[in-house]
Design a protein that fits this description.
This protein is of the alpha+beta class. It is built from 12 helices and 8 strands. Helix 2 crosses helix 3 and helix 9 crosses helix 12.
Length: about 325
């Protein structure tokens, strides 16, 4: 089972204790994958279609607990067997369908379907607990998230622009930074950062997968810190080695010009020790002197040797 499938399995077992939160979750599911049929006698039928058994189970449970209504469940297999079977959950009784649709703000005062259902459903989302239930239902209906071991990406596909805007608003009210991108004929609400996705999982109650996500974030951060430390140490080592090579080249050039013996004693001494110990650090070089000299003192003397070597090179070029 995919990471998304595991999360939906966990979410399908969450049952909010309050009626208003259950209504908010049901509203998101109907908005995401519900269909309303109206016959020639203006009688309503409500159907939810999904390939996800977790969503089917959750929708059936919500309708039964909220209204005492049992949706008829029809399993239809794909005739070419190229796709998963589809669950059709049907409420074909007009009064039952109206009861459900009115409760989730789909119908107006006259019993007609509203033009901008999603904006009307904001009336159900006045509390944070209801907002969390709503985005849980939206994720169950049409959401997915990549395996955090590979990448950070969570999205909810919306067939209506209004639904995408409402989802973005609700997510941002819960402290996330949701964005919208148009893909083919759909608007997709998405989160890209690991911390944002972890916040989302915590908000919808996917505690087990939140812990798994946080473990991945911690391990990746530790790995990144270790890589940065290794890169920094490698850069410093390369810098130290390059400096030592340059210092030895300068000393060899001074020696080749016959000027090493004419150097002041302190410079001649550090030059001889550097040639003898080409791999040690400046601090260790200073400790080999008698009396010992600090790192800055060693660096000053080596810099003087470099200046002398440059002057000798310039003189030989004339």
């Amino acid at each position: 089972m995919s990471f998304s499938g595991e999360i939906k399995e966990e979410l399908s077992k969450i049952t909010d204790s309050s009626r208003h939160c259950r209504l908010a979750e049901l509203a998101a599911i109907i908005s995401g994958c519900g269909q309303i049929m109206i016959d020639e006698d203006d009688r309503y039928e409500l159907e939810v279609r999904t390939e996800n058994v977790c969503l089917a189970r959750k929708y059936y449970s919500l309708v039964k607990k909220l209204f005492g209504i049992q949706a008829a469940v029809i399993l239809r297999k794909n005739e070419y067997l190229t796709k998963a079977s589809t669950y059709h959950l049907v409420v074909d009784d007009h009064e039952d369908a109206v009861h459900i649709l009115d409760a989730v703000c789909v119908l107006d005062e006259d019993g007609f379907v509203r033009e901008e259902v999603e904006y009307s459903q904001l009336a159900l989302l006045k509390k944070d607990c209801c907002r969390r239930a709503y985005i849980r239902g939206a994720f169950l209906a049409s959401g997915s998230v990549s395996d955090p071991q590979k990448s950070y990406h969570l999205e909810i596909v919306c067939q209506q622009k209004e639904r995408a805007q409402v989802l973005k608003q609700v997510l941002n009210e819960l402290g996330m930074d949701a964005r919208i991108v148009t893909r083919k004929k759909n608007d997709v609400v998405y989160l890209k950062e690991g911390e944002q996705i972890a916040s989302f999982l915590g908000s919808i109650g996917a505690t087990r997968h939140l812990f798994a996500m946080e473990n991945v974030l911690i391990l990746k951060e530790m790995r990144n810190n270790l890589n940065r430390q290794v890169n920094c140490e490698t850069a410093n080592l390369n810098k130290t080695v390059s400096a030592a090579v340059r210092q030895i080249e300068d000393i060899r050039y001074i020696e080749a010009c016959g000027e090493l013996k004419n150097l002041p004693q302190n410079l001649r001494e550090i030059a001889e020790i550097r040639l003898e110990y080409p791999d040690v650090s400046l601090k260790e070089l200073g400790e080999l002197l008698n009396p010992p000299v600090g790192k800055s003192g060693v660096n000053h003397r080596l810099r003087k040797l470099g200046e002398i070597a440059e002057k000798l090179r310039a003189a030989h070029q004339i």
